[in-house]
Design a protein that fits this description.
Blueprint lengths: L22 H10 L3 H10 L8 H22 L2 H10 L3 H12 L3 H28 L7 H4 L6 H19 L7 H8 L2 H12 L3 H28 L5 H6 L1 H47 L7 E7 L4 E8 L7 H10 L4 E3 L2 E3 L13 H19 L4 E9 L2 E9 L9 H7 L4 E9 L10 H20 L2 E7 L4 E7 L6 H11 L6 E7 L17
Parallel strand pairs: 2-3, 2-4, 6-7, 9-10
Antiparallel strand pairs: 1-2, 5-6, 8-9
């Protein structure tokens, strides 16, 4: 390159050809794309420089994106939520803050932070107002998915922030900004904060706010690194402000680390919960065995109460729960195991005559009453339904207070608008045993049952049994000394103790008869 050539005019550094190897030419290639006019363009794109009517355009698009986000979250529609991400302009002030920090423009940095804070507060207010107006329950799957961030969200935000900063610097890749907006997702988390606050779920709101702050901090940190690495900050400015830039970078890094710690803990806890759930489910499936296909089961691990609830539904009762309790308590020491069984009725069809009109009406009423009780969210049992003229007498019971009878009126009106419901509600209380049998007691009962089966097969009477966890002692009475090898093998297998002593005390049983001759009968004399 001659003295009169510049990086902009060098034919060797055209856009069509990649930069050749070599530190000087690579450095010249970077600076060719970050000429003063390019820096001015970046600053204008990020609104760091003054832009006419910027606030009006920004808040209009922000409001529209929040409205779309709330609607998408309420409808539980991922496609609508993605549309809100594409509309959202929040990436601009966040990247502007990163650019201001990298250029040591701390006055503009404060201005950018104020813009972010005001935009965030406005987004929460708009989402709160929409959630208050909408009549439905808005805690959908899309909402709940944004209330439990973990370390993976931080990694995504770092990568998306770096991509956004690079796309801002390079005009030829700026078309990828919509994809970056989708990846980092700033508006849905802040809209979730407003929705959960309106629902009174402060814990969920804190989780959504943590996800939002995670994305903000990661974008700012990644953008600083990219802006410095790509030459947006000139070498002279970098050397003149190295102390201030270092202090700013350390502050941002400290914020990212402070956010990463609870996210990492959340990730570890989530992995532990998933592992525990899989372990408990595998134990239940092994316990059900061949009945696993005919029975429905749900496994709930209640950490705070230290309980494992295995609810089983089906036509036929499940196997004996003793083995399940032993395995669960071995896998989860200190946990109580509850195994409620809910038996369902088999549907039958007949060729009898069609039911009378009253029976048909009662059948329709029963369907609506069951649906109404199911919507209440209570554990219930429907005992009886009687029709007395236009009065529908409902006798039911369940946990908690009685459901709202007024919400049943529209359902019955769809059948017959003259029907009036009346409810007799009995409140049930679930009472569980305060103590659970210990593993030693459960094993003792299993061993005793095995001994009884063996004694019956051998024609013996069980005269005594004891098991202290290390040794089995059995007392039997019978006509002949039994073979105890089969018993020893069976008991050692059940106790999972191949070397366990099994002592059998045998007492012979004899038939005793008189040896004196019988007295002669008078009739034979």
């Amino acid at each position: 390159m001659t003295a009169t050539e510049t990086p902009e005019s060098s034919p060797e550094l055209s856009d069509e050809e990649p930069p050749p190897f070599g530190f000087r030419r690579a450095r010249a290639w970077w600076h060719r794309h970050l000429a003063p006019e390019d820096r001015r363009r970046v600053m204008a794109d990020l609104a760091v420089s003054r832009v006419e009517h910027w606030a009006w355009r920004f808040y209009t698009m922000l409001t529209l994106s929040v409205v779309v986000a709330v609607m998408g979250l309420a409808l539980d529609s991922a496609a609508v939520v993605i549309g809100a991400m594409l509309l959202a302009p929040l990436m601009q002030p966040v990247l502007a803050t990163g650019a201001s920090l990298s250029l040591a423009l701390f006055g503009k940095t404060i201005g950018g932070l104020i813009r972010i804070a005001l935009a965030s507060a406005w987004s929460v207010a708009v989402a709160y107002g929409l959630a208050w107006v909408l009549p439905d329950d808005l805690l959908t799957g899309e909402v709940l998915a944004r209330t439990q961030p973990d370390i993976k969200d931080l990694v995504v935000a770092l990568a998306a922030g770096a991509a956004g900063a690079y796309a801002t610097v390079r005009e030829d890749v700026s078309a990828s900004l919509p994809g970056v907006a989708v990846a980092v997702a700033l508006v849905p988390p802040i809209a979730t904060v407003g929705i959960t606050l309106q629902a009174g779920e402060e814990a969920l709101a804190q989780g959504a706010l943590l996800l939002y702050l995670t994305n903000l901090a990661a974008i700012v940190f990644a953008s600083i690194v990219v802006f410095v690495a790509t030459g947006l900050v000139s070498p002279r400015r970098l050397s003149d402000n190295v102390v201030r830039l270092t202090a700013a970078a350390v502050g941002v890094i400290a914020l990212v680390v402070a956010i990463a710690v609870p996210l990492y803990r959340a990730s570890v806890e989530s992995i532990d919960r998933n592992t525990e759930q899989r372990t408990a489910t595998d134990i239940v499936d092994r316990w059900l065995g061949d009945q696993a296909g005919s029975l429905e089961r749900t496994v709930e691990i209640r950490r705070s109460a230290r309980q494992i609830v295995v609810e089983v539904r089906g036509f036929d009762p499940p196997p004996d729960e003793t083995r399940l309790i032993i395995e669960m308590q071995d896998a989860f020491p200190g946990y109580d195991v509850l195994v409620p069984f809910i038996q369902t009725q088999r549907a039958t069809t007949t060729t009898e005559a069609p039911p009378e009109p009253t029976e048909q009406l009662l059948a329709q009423i029963r369907v609506e009453v069951l649906a109404w009780l199911d919507e209440s969210g209570l554990d219930f049992q429907l005992d009886d339904i009687q029709l007395d003229g236009s009065l529908v007498r409902i006798d039911a019971a369940g946990t908690g207070g009685a459901p709202d009878i007024d919400s049943l009126v529209p359902r019955l009106a769809a059948i017959d608008d003259t029907l009036v419901p009346g409810l007799i509600w009995s409140e049930l209380e679930t009472i569980t045993a305060t103590t659970q049998p210990t593993p030693l007691e459960l094993t003792r009962e299993e061993l005793r049952a095995e001994v009884q089966v063996w004694a019956a097969d051998e024609g013996l009477i069980l005269d005594g049994f004891d098991y202290d966890g290390e040794r089995v002692e059995v007392g039997v009475i019978g006509p002949a000394e039994p073979d105890i090898v089969r018993l020893q093998v069976a008991l050692r297998t059940l106790a999972d103790a191949p070397e366990m002593p099994v002592d059998v005390f045998f007492t012979p049983r004899y038939l005793v008869t008189t040896t004196a001759p019988p007295e002669p009968s008078p009739l034979l004399e």
